[in-house]
Each structure stands twice: as structure tokens, then as C-alpha cells.
Amino acid sequence: MTRPLLALSLGDPAGIGPEILMRLLAEGDLPARLLVLGDAGVLERARRALDGAARLPPVVSGPEEAASSDLEVCLWEPLPPLAPLPALGRIDAAAGAASHRWVLEGARLAATGVVDGLVTGPIHKEAWRRAGVAHPGHTEALRDAACVDRVLMLLVGGRLRTALATIHVPLHEVPGLLTTAGLVEDLVLLDRELARGFGFGFGPGRPRLAVAGLNPHAGEGGLFGREEIDVIEPAVSEARRRGIDAHGPLPADACIPAAAEGRWDAVLAMYHDQALPAVKAIAWRRGVNVTLGLPYVRTSVDHGTAFDLAGRGVAVASSLREALRLAAEVAPRMRASKDAQEEGGLNTAGAPSDLVS
């Protein structure tokens, strides 16, 4: 079977994205074929930072050439060469604009089937803002590029998979952003996407989903807050009515460790730092960020641009390797699920359509 072809957006040129790619190429044994979206000059600088440990990938004239060739790794430059190169370790509008364009080109190639999926290098949100990009990050940009109403951020580390009901918002805003209807939509999406291809490792039947409470001890019956009673419990009940194997609200400090041991197939967490510290503690430098709800597989490293390390040749590529491995593993499943849907008239989970209404 032909290995998947994945688009890889290079990330911010001033950060460690180019270096971790070149380190990965030096280490070899890639889990998929790669079409890198970036800039040859940026990669050459990263190659020198690693003392020339890997060769630059050949430049192709366009993505179709990469798709029709037998190249293991190649580079396509959607933009004119960056000149001068953005300074390493500094926020730069030109770097933000380039990294944004590379992401959108990768999304287009994945959505049209030229590549089998998209893996993204680390971007800098402030560089995007300075470049005039309206989106705060990858997740929102990819959602709008795909013209879908809702996506979920899923973090994968070891056996732990945890999705986020809210993402990049101030903590004091989280309670007001949580709604019963929104949590039901999140659980429907999480259930569907796990069944469609991201639920590697669990047995037959629908995914087992834990829903974390917002407050300590999941509110302790209202003693520490009523969000569990007024918002989260009704969402879990409605999800179960729709056939989803959801449970909660459960104390986060109990259900997240239990998920890491395999008791749950995924946890729906209420906010960013309820979930990410656990993922990074379990899989430091090996975590993967996934966007659920897109018409293709998208994974990413679980770290940022690390401006303080850029150009020093010390950044490790373990999270990027895991992101590529996961995308290569999931892409054929998503393709098979899509084929089954088209042949049998089922939704992407192979379940009755009322589960995704």
C-alpha cells in the first residue's frame, strides 16, 4: 500500500519549525511522504544550524508534481523567496504572513485531495496579528477555510485524548461561554470523529466519553458552583439520549488520569489548562494537537515557536514525528469512512443520521 502524502506547513520562519523538520530528515525513517510548504532559504538556514546534518528536500514546481512523483520529501514554495530572511527569535509580520499562507495552502491541498492530510509546524500568534490575520491561531483559521461551523481541539499524549470545550480565552470568561447546546455539539462531534478514524486503540462499540466538571470536585453538588448542575449535566443527558456513551460531569482530577490508563476513550475538558498540563506531563515533547471536524486529517506539534531556541540547533523533533505518525495512521481510516459513507448513505461515523443532527 502506498504511504500517505502529507502536506507539512513549515511554521514561523523565525522559530524552531524549520529546524525540527531538518532534524527529522536527518533522523530518517519518516512515517509518510512529505510535501513541505515553505521557503528554501529558511530551510537552508535551519540546515546550517544543524551543521548540515540533512540535505535540503528538492524543490518541485507545484503540488501536483509531488503527488505524481515517488519523492519521499519535497518542497513547494507558494510564495516568492523571503528576502531578507526574518530574524531568528523575533516577532515579524513578514514571517507571520508567510506561515499563514503556508497553512492555508496546505488546507486547500488537503481539502481537494491532492494530499492525504495536513501537519502544521508551530506558528506565532502575535506574528499573525501583526500580519493582519484575523484568526488567533490554526484551529480557527482551518475551521473557516473549510467552511465548517464547529471544530474541536483534541490533544493526544500516550493513551490520553482530551478535547477542549473552550480554547484560547481568558479563564474568567470560560463559565459564560459554556452552554448546554454547545457541549452537546462538542460531544456529537467528538463521538463522530473518534469513530471516523481518530479512535485508535479502543475496542468495538461507540467511544466511551468522560465529561469533566468545570469546578473542583465537579461542583460537589452545587457547593463549589452550579455549572455542573445547570449546564453540563443536561448536556450529558441529551448526548446519551442521542446514543452517545457520555458520562459526567466527573471531577477532572479523577477522569483525566483514568483516561490516561484507558478507562475512557476521550475526555471533554472545559478549558485549555484543565487538559494540556496532563497531556504534556504524560507525553512531554511527544504530544500531538489534532483538529476534529475538518474534512481531512490535521495534526500539529503540541509546542510553540520556541524563539529562545531558534538557530541554536538544539530543538527536538519528537512531537513533529508523532504528529506525522498519527496523521499517516488516521488518513486511510478517514478515507475508508468517507468511501463507506458515499456508498452506504451513512454519516461519517457510520451511525444513524440523527446522531449528528
Describe the structure.
With 357 residues, the protein is α/β, with parallel strands linked by helices. The chain contains twelve helices and eleven strands. α4 crosses α6, α8 (180-198) packs across α9 and α10 (252-260) runs parallel beside α11. β5 (152-157) and β6 (160-164) form a beta hairpin. Helices cover 41% and strands 15% of the residues. It has two domains: 1-148 and 294-317, Isopropylmalate Dehydrogenase (3-Layer(aba) Sandwich), CATH 3.40.718.10; 149-293, Isopropylmalate Dehydrogenase, CATH 3.40.718. An eleven-stranded mixed beta sheet has the order 3-2-1-4-11-10-5-6-9-7-8, sandwiched between helices.
Describe the structure using short key phrases:
357 residues; alpha/beta; Isopropylmalate Dehydrogenase; 2 domains; disordered C terminus; eleven-stranded mixed β-sheet
CATH class of the largest domain: Alpha Beta
The helix/strand order is EHEHHEHEHHEEHHEHEHEHEEH
Q: How many domains is the backbone divided into?
A: 2
Question: What is the second-level CATH architecture of the largest domain?
Answer: 3-Layer(aba) Sandwich
Could you tell me the CATH topology label of the largest domain: Isopropylmalate Dehydrogenase
Layout of strands and helices, then pairs:
Blueprint lengths: L4 E5 L7 H11 L5 E5 L2 H10 L13 H6 L4 E4 L16 H19 L5 E4 L4 H6 L7 H8 L6 E6 L2 E5 L9 H4 L2 H19 L9 E5 L14 H15 L3 E6 L1 H9 L5 E4 L2 H11 L5 E5 L4 E5 L16 H27 L13
Parallel strand pairs: 1-2, 1-4, 2-3, 4-11, 6-9, 7-8, 7-9
Antiparallel strand pairs: 5-6, 5-10, 10-11
Helix pairs in contact: 1-2, 4-6, 8-9, 10-11
